[in-house]
Structure formats: structure tokens, C-alpha cells
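Q: what sequence does this backbone want?
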């Protein structure tokens, strides 16, 4: 598959995956501005619809101001609103659309997130991506609380040709991380992907365990982890904001992966997160397939969210 075909294929998956978000937003915009002048009430209603789409209050207020500027008491078409919205979303997202650069060897990636966010599947997809680039990959089954997670990661290791370090259910994940990084250095691994137990951001003891894993890693590799990815489930909407805040403080999150954008009408939450936290967004997922996780691009996302071709 050539680059152009790949880009077209991903665009189709992205726009299809964000269809629920773009349809809801498009219908709301059309219902508001068709046959109405841009008066204060219309702009207020528009702002409310943007907030309902999880784009965030600050962003929604800004957009309403931009749309109203110079057009007050005039008509505006839904397409014009969508064009303005796409442009403003792109402005917010462009600074955070950053690739995950592999800058060390082994490059240790700690993957965190709450239960059900899609962490283990994301690790598998990342392993497939790095393996396709010819990198030697090690998976670390650090979610020792769930036997199913260890088993799931083992399947991904077989499928992608990555090596795996695992222990029995209930083992100390920090010790496992220490042993794994020691082995990765000895074996010449390029990338080490460390799974962690899904934890609620309001459970202090689980969050402190995450800090312990980082501390212990640094005994064997002082610069590790080189990246701390937070996997977010788009379907949780506003709750994702508190996850970014608390995991950021505890685990030192360096970048985000947003999954399940195909399962929600709340894809706008990624805009609110970028607007507020300015953290790099490395990858987004729009399906279960191994190819449904791709590097984040601001323009494509902005156009897909508002339903532009």
C-alpha cells in the first residue's frame, strides 16, 4: 500500500469513526443558524451546543465570539460555521500534534490509565507499529492484578513478534519493571512498553504504586521512563479532564493516546484537553483493528470532527 492509499484509508476510518461526533455537532449547528440571524440568543445557544459536544467552555466562548465578530445581526450558513470551527480546532490542536520520538535505547514507555481505557490493546497496537519499523520490542506485563491482562499481552507479543517479560498474578509490578529493563539493556531492545494496572484516579494507594514503579525503574536506567503515555477513553467525556490532571501530577504524563473515538459523540473532548493542558497528543484510535491507531494530525482531526470532507 503506497503512502497516498494509506492516507486515504486512514482518513476514511477517521471520518467514519468520528461520524457520531460530527453528525451531532452538524445537526446542532444547522438547527441553530439556518434562517436565523446571529443575535445574542443565537450565539448563546451555539456556545451551549459546543459545550454539549465536550469542546470545553473556554473554547466554546471563544468560538462564539469569533463567529459573531463582524457578522452580528447578519445571517451565516452552517458550512461557514463549520469552516470557522474546523480552523479554530486546528489552531488548538496543531501545537500538540507531536510524534513520539524514540530518542534512547532502550526507549522505555510507561503506559497508564484507568480501567477499561484500552491500555493493553493500545500497547499491542504500538508494538505492531514499532515492529513494522524493524525495531526490537519488549512488552512488560506490569498489570499483575489481572491474570487476563497478562494473558492478553502474551497474545499481542506472539502476534507482533515482540518479546515479553511477565510474572504471576499478584507479583510486585515495580520489581518486574526493574528486571525487565535490566533484561532489555542486556538483549539490546529498542523499545520497552510497560503495561500498568488500570487504576482509578481517586485511589491514592494505586497512584502511589505508579510512583514506585517509576522510582524503581530509575535504579536500573536513570533516564527511564522516557515517555509516560496516558491512554484516555473518548467515551468518558468530561471525566477525561480529571484523569489528565491527576495522572499528570502522579505519573508525570508526557503524552496522550485517545482511544474509542469511533464509539462516541463526544470526540470534542480532545479539543478541551488540548486547550487546557497543552500535552502532546501522539496517537488516536478509531477502532479495534491493529491499523486503527495512528499518529495524530491536527488538520485531519479538525475536519473530521466537524464533518468536512
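A:
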Amino acid at each position: 500500500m503506497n503512502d497516498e492509499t494509506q492516507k486515504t484509508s486512514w482518513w476514511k476510518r477517521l471520518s467514519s469513526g468520528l461520524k457520531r461526533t460530527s453528525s451531532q455537532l452538524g445537526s446542532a449547528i444547522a438547527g441553530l443558524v439556518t434562517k436565523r440571524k446571529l443575535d445574542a440568543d443565537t450565539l448563546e445557544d451555539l456556545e451551549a451546543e459546543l459545550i454539549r459536544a465536550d469542546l470545553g467552555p473556554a473554547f466554546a466562548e471563544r468560538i462564539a465570539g469569533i463567529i459573531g465578530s463582524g457578522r452580528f445581526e447578519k445571517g451565516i450558513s452552517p458550512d461557514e460555521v463549520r469552516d470557522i470551527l474546523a480552523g479554530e480546532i486546528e489552531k488548538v490542536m496543531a501545537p500538540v500534534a507531536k510524534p513520539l520520538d524514540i530518542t534512547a535505547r532502550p526507549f522505555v514507555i510507561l503506559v497508564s490509565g484507568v480501567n477499561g481505557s484500552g491500555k493493553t490493546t493500545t500497547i499491542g497496537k504500538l508494538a505492531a507499529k514499532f515492529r513494522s519499523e524493524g525495531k526490537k520490542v519488549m512488552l512488560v506485563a506490569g498489570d499483575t492484578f489481572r491474570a487476563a491482562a497478562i494473558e492478553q499481552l502474551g497474545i499481542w507479543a506472539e502476534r507482533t513478534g515482540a518479546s515479553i517479560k511477565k510474572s504471576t498474578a499478584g507479583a510486585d509490578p515495580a520489581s518486574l519493571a526493574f528486571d525487565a529493563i535490566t533484561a532489555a539493556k542486556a538483549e539490546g531492545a529498542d523499545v520497552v512498553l510497560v503495561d500498568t494496572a488500570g487504576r482509578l484516579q481517586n485511589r491514592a494507594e494505586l497512584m502511589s504504586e505508579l510512583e514506585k514503579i517509576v522510582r524503581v525503574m530509575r535504579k536500573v536506567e536513570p533516564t527511564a521512563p522516557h515517555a509516560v503515555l496516558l491512554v484516555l477513553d473518548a467515551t468518558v467525556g468530561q471525566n477525561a479532564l480529571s484523569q489528565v490532571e491527576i495522572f499528570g501530577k502522579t505519573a508525570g504524563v508526557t503524552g496522550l493516546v485517545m482511544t474509542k473515538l469511533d464509539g462516541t459523540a463526544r470526540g470534542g473532548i480532545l479539543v478541551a484537553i488540548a486547550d487546557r493542558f497543552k500535552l502532546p497528543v501522539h496517537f488516536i484510535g478509531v477502532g479495534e483493528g491493529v491499523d486503527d491507531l495512528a499518529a495524530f494530525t491536527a488538520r485531519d482531526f479538525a475536519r473530521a470532527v466537524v464533518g468536512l470532507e
